[in-house]
Design brief:
Layout: E1 17-20, E2 23-30, H1 35-39, H2 44-53, E3 55-58, E4 66-72, H3 75-93, E5 100-105, H4 109-126, E6 144-150, H5 155-177, E7 182-191, E8 201-207, H6 212-226, E9 240-245, H7 253-258, E10 260-262, E11 268-270, H8 278-283, E12 288-294, E13 296-305, E14 311-318
Antiparallel strand pairs: 1-2, 2-4, 3-4, 5-6, 5-13, 7-8, 7-12, 8-9, 10-11, 13-14
Helix pairs in contact: 2-3, 5-6
Length: 320
């Protein structure tokens, strides 16, 4: 369960019920992306809730940030309506792809240079491998070790996550790290599925000899999961740094059209665009991307970049 409301003490009006005229009203904060779930198809969900609770719901205009306004003649009806809306918000949030992530940035001058060397050598040596092309190589300035993915739909939620990261630093990070720097080595490549001829992600292996990075990453992830702002899919963070991913693949319109095929229910499904990783994993199994001093933690926004081509950083916490 996401618990952003506990960090929004400056907006008590979004939970209070106040008297207005001959009835009552309350406000419910609704992220723009989730309004459609409250509306439902042809406004059916909204109308059903109003009918079941004897209330009226006024939603913000399309694309406009603002609360939903609930009005009714009885407080218990207002409460019932609000609870239904809050359940929809909680449920529908799970359907929104993650928007932000916590990570250890791994882009340093040496690493960037070695990643560029890796790309050049891989394309020259393994360029004939099916599906392997320049567009699927990770941009060096975005290289990172993901800790946990987050779905933050408003600026207040970003600020809440930033505050939580500060709390995490005091309670979890500083006691574990102390004054001793964390150093790792990036060496070798590995893929993430069972068939090396059909791979979507290739990553540089993170060598964490003393286990300190693994312990820290696990602790941060669990802290955010416990606070309701993250998901624990595997019980521990997988240490890796993505160097190729088919999500980056560039195609022209003709290729994009051909990448879709009809299914039995006439819906268009994407055709697999994996690449053959057998040669690249063998040739570069011992490739050294470099040693790295993990000196900060970033809360970053997916798909948004700064002037240096790095992920937009919403909050940074330094490490020794």
């Amino acid at each position: 369960m996401y618990k952003f409301d506990q960090y929004e003490e400056d907006e008590p009006e979004c939970t209070a019920i106040e008297a207005v005229g001959s009835g009552f009203k309350t406000l419910v904060a609704v992220p723009v992306e989730l309004v459609k779930f409250i509306c439902g198809k042809k406004m059916e969900t909204k109308l059903r809730i109003e009918r079941e609770t004897n209330t009226q719901i006024k939603l913000p205009r399309h694309g406009v940030e603002g609360p939903a306004v609930i009005t009714g003649s009885r407080k218990k009806d207002i409460l019932s309506c609000r609870q239904k809306i809050e359940l929809i918000i909680e449920w529908s949030r799970q359907k929104i792809p993650p928007t932000h992530f916590l990570s250890f940035p791994l882009y340093k001058k040496e690493t960037i240079s070695r990643l560029e060397d890796f790309k050049s050598a891989a394309l020259e040596t393994c360029g004939e491998s099916k599906g392997l092309d320049a567009s699927i190589f990770t941009k060096p300035q975005t290289l990172h070790q993901t800790i946990v993915m987050l779905t933050l739909l408003t600026q207040k939620e970003v600020e809440a996550a930033s505050s939580l990261l500060e709390e995490c630093y005091e309670e979890i990070i500083r006691p574990r790290v102390g004054e001793d720097p964390i150093k790792i080595k990036l060496e070798g490549v590995e893929y993430m599925n069972d068939d090396p001829s059909k791979v979507d992600v290739l990553y540089a292996k993170v060598h964490d000899e003393d286990g300190r990075l693994q312990e820290l990453a696990n602790a941060i992830m669990k802290y955010f999961v416990t606070k309701g702002l993250g998901k624990d899919g595997y019980g521990r963070v997988k240490l890796h740094a993505t160097v190729l991913t088919t999500k980056l693949r560039e195609t022209d319109k003709t290729e994009q059209t051909s990448r879709f095929q009809s299914t039995s229910n006439n819906r268009r499904a994407p055709i697999q665009t994996s690449f053959d990783a057998r040669e690249i994993t063998e040739v570069f199994k011992d490739f050294v991307f470099g040693e790295h001093h993990v000196d900060c933690i970033h809360l970053s926004q997916r798909g948004v970049y700064d002037d240096n081509g790095q992920y937009h950083c919403c909050k940074s916490i330094p490490l020794p």
